[in-house]
Amino acid sequence: MESLPRALLEEIIKRITRLTDLNSLSLVSKMFYTVESENRYSMCVGCGLYPAKLAMASLCSRFPNLCKVEINYSGWTAENGLQLDNQGLSVLATCCLSLTDLTLSLCSNINDSGLCSLAHYKKLTCLKFNTVPGISSAGLFTVAVGCKSLSALCLIGLEKVANVNWLEYLGSKGSLEELVVVACKGISQYDLLKFGPGWMKLQKFEFDEVKGRYEIEQPHDPSHMAQYQYKYDFCCESLKVLTLARIVTLPEIGLHFFLSKCKSLEKLCLHYVVGIYDSDMITLSHSCSNLRSLSLQLTPLFIGGLQARDCRTPLTDDSLKALALSCPMLETVELTFFACEPMYPSEISFTQNGVLMLIQSCPIRDLILTGANFFNDEGMKALSSAQYLETLELMDCVAITDTGMRFLAHTPRLINLTLRQCHGFSDHAVAEVAHARNLESLIVEGCCRISLKAVQGVAKSVQYKVHGSGLRGVNRD
């Protein structure tokens, strides 16, 4: 292979995705070592980076064209040696001149001072900080001002961030297209509204307060004026992906304004959001005809009745009907119902007929049902005629039996099936479906009536797991 043209060798290397294979290839010859080093564009390091500063300098020297670097200290202990610190990060910033994408995860020795070295990076377009305790608002402001090309910013678990002057700056002077804020206690939904004109450019937004489901506060925005109806009349028509999780909303207050403003939305995730009602989903469906993916994670909320169990999920079939009528491109649907007891069916406000109406009206290719106590064998029979359905995932769906499972054998396009914690059907029904559909993949986790022996070889790729064990792969030749 030494005689291969360099361009061909580079193309071969680009097609190799496994890191172990790339490392082995680099040992074949000096030429292979050189070409592989020059064509390595991404790297993930962490606990094995020791001594951290010298090791980082060595890696940057060996791989001069790195564009994407992740430093992740997951599982780190003192026995792994000192973590990369501000000086080590400065080495990366100085030596890795092509860097455009940087992720720092669980880096305890990096703080605001270290971020100063990143502020000179004019090419840096994507920054992700995951549980980096030393980073505060001051460090983020330094990055916001210095990194002129920054288009994506992801903040997870940054507890020292207490104000959003950096966000105001990015909103007025920056060019962010993606913003993710998860579990940052000092950032509220009202702080995020200070992004101002930045919403015009944003294409992806995710906000998750990561509070407990019952840790609910009455929302209050000190800047909101009740008599001024359009207080939050921002333009966010470029937004394509929206995720709101574990927040409390009220009409015309906070992030609630998104639901009537996002006309280009393609993917929507609403996870345990309090204050979302059918009227919101109807309004959203009328303005989001391009919606392709919908994820709803719901839990029963107290509705103020006299009965002890006067709790139910906030959305009804009216929401599903609006989506069915107004979102003709919807192809991925996830419906998750958490803490809904089968003995109290009224806790879930969706019905089986409502879900089936959505599936029959839209070209649903991927369907995930979790905790759908209302979905039974009749629902599975209706699914068997879903002409677009390719991927189905069922988790904790207690009303489905062998009879319902066998109907899937007639689903015209089904190729991927995932079953988790479903105990109503057995080996025979699942194997019958797998053989009839010639499945590409079958995943079985925690289903007590399905054995490993029964699913071996029934699909091209089989993964099997029982409670307390690891996931086992059983692939068909």
TrEMBL record:
UniProt protein name: F-box/LRR-repeat protein 15-like leucin rich repeat domain-containing protein
Species for this entry: Urochloa decumbens
PANTHER family (UniProt xref): F-BOX DOMAIN CONTAINING PROTEIN, PARTNER OF PAIRED, ISOFORM B-RELATED
Domain of life of the native organism: Eukaryota
SMART domains recorded: LRR_CC
Gene3D superfamilies documented for this protein: Ribonuclease Inhibitor
InterPro entries per record: FBXL15_LRR (IPR057207), Leu-rich_rpt_Cys-con_subtyp (IPR006553), LRR_dom_sf (IPR032675)
F-box/LRR-repeat protein 15-like leucin rich repeat domain residues: 251-460
